[in-house]
Amino acid sequence: MSNAPAAAQALAVLQLLARHAEPMPAAAIARDLGLARSSTYHLLNVLRDAGFVSHLGDDQRWGLGVAAFELGSAYSRQAPLQRISRPVLSRLVDRTTHNAHLVVLHGRDVLYVIEERAQGRPSLVTDVGVRLPAQLTASGLAILAVLPPQQVRALFASRDDFVQRHGRGPTSLTALRSELSQVRTRGYAIEQDSVTPGLASVGAAALDHNGLPAAGIAVTYPYERVAPAEREEVVDAVRRAAADLSRRLGHR
Amino acid sequence: MSNAPAAAQALAVLQLLARHAEPMPAAAIARDLGLARSSTYHLLNVLRDAGFVSHLGDDQRWGLGVAAFELGSAYSRQAPLQRISRPVLSRLVDRTTHNAHLVVLHGRDVLYVIEERAQGRPSLVTDVGVRLPAQLTASGLAILAVLPPQQVRALFASRDDFVQRHGRGPTSLTALRSELSQVRTRGYAIEQDSVTPGLASVGAAALDHNGLPAAGIAVTYPYERVAPAEREEVVDAVRRAAADLSRRLGHR
DNA sequence: TCCGCCTGTCTCGGATGCGAGACACGGCGG
DNA sequence: CCGCCGTGTCTCGCATCCGAGACAGGCGGA
């Protein structure tokens, strides 16, 4: 049984600050987490001393500190999947000239773990570290399509598990299954306007040595400005990248 | 006086794991941090439950978890400097067709906070979140060159403060001052082979509303393959990017 | 100007977190 | 096969951490 409440509280503070777009007052942190105000200050001072939190004295607010950034960067450098995937993604971007990203499945969400901008494309509004519902993204659909069906059913056990975005996305397990069946037939997943209006994505899954999806890889493009022939090339490139990554992950 | 030792210990565990390239056994974590073994397990279990650490059961080792990545990503999305700098860097990469990066000064080191790859260039070996001695990097030299001289002296108070890499870099305050003087005269900083053999960098500082350096911005290129005319264009682009970022930061 | 509210720091006694150590299990080498 | 060593989990008594609350200072509104 874990027995270090102060440690857990410190992590809860970090995760609360991560969820807030702006720095927070200490009293709000204490209230939101149900901590004693004096304990909150103790925790914040420990976090500040280690650099995980910084105190914006003028505003009397507390925000994440640079050590949080360094910790996340260390994870990115260490994580085998990210290390292996980076060159694959770079080649995909160079080949398609569109932005590309890599996701992993976490619960019913996908987590964006790498994003790379293509030359001349908009500066990335950093989506790395962001979670989105898997069924609303091409990369997520590609992953779900190769999951065992009972696992998909377990993930989406009730209607409450379905969320929409911009009025799009499946609203039942039957609808989701139908869509996943199309993904499998087609060999790749597509998504349009669900994440960002005006943008479409083509996604495919990368499998590990057990034949299970380790990641989803996708390219995003403005669909009104990409001709069908170019789109076919994007599809081809995405599928090749997914196959390349699968091989690197020991698949088959 | 901060008073939550378990919180501090949890953070120390995270920072230890961040410094290690590979996951570690619990006993090594306990030994390295001088913690009781049983307490170490408590801490690791708290960290694991929150997702900051993952346990690799097959190997009986503990490594950073995905929540560390999410925390670092949240910082990057929130940090004003990073948000403001990203489009500037993207334009610099597109214009020069070489990899570029942004650093901030931390103590005597620079911390790499953004790196962006250019099309056709090598996949980035992620240097984001890495620290290097400021005096060995073009971006760091550019920052030091516009720091008040007494601050430079305070940073490099003794000969022990000077480190070299690949046999390069200043070894005394006098040598450093001479180099900074050249940077100021030239208007930009250059570095060659100090960080990575075969690569050179051109760097310039971005100033904030107080006229102090908020960041260093640099482009890295293989110097044997870049003609003098192209190098002049790189210099021009870096200086323009630094000036653009300075304006965005409220300078002048 | 005064008062109320918020921030940050500190006190101190009792509840609880910490750590020394025990136990069970698995793997490896002699 | 057996013993040793390392891993992970658990116990329990005492030292110390936690939290209720006090205090000081700053700010804004009436």
Automatic annotation (TrEMBL), chains A, B:
Domain of life according to the entry: Bacteria
Domain IclR-ED: 67-251
Protein source organism: Luteipulveratus flavus
Domain annotation HTH iclR-type: ranges: 4-66
Record's keyword terms, sorted: DNA-binding, Transcription, Transcription regulation
Keyword DNA-binding: yes
Keyword Ligase found: no
Protein known as: IclR family transcriptional regulator
